[in-house]
Amino acid sequence: IAEVVRSLRVLDGAVLVISAVEGVQAQAVVLMRACSAWPCPRSSS
Fold first, then answer.
1. Does an H or E element contain 9, and which?
2. Is the pLDDT of residue 44 over 70?
3. Which of 1, 12, 26, 42 is most buried, taking the most CB atoms under 10 A from its CB?
4. For residues 45 and 40, what is the distance between their CA atoms, to the nearest angstrom?
5. Where are the alpha helices (H) located in the chain, listed in sequence order?
């Protein structure tokens, strides 16, 4: 998770894919919050 959060600084956008079978995991919630802190376009599906 830490590497992903640090890499958000250099991204032009982010896509978060959540499995319909496994559902939302704790890591997905943490990553969505981290993405919300940075002003980059993002999409979740």
1. none
2. no
3. 42
4. 17
5. 2-7, 26-37
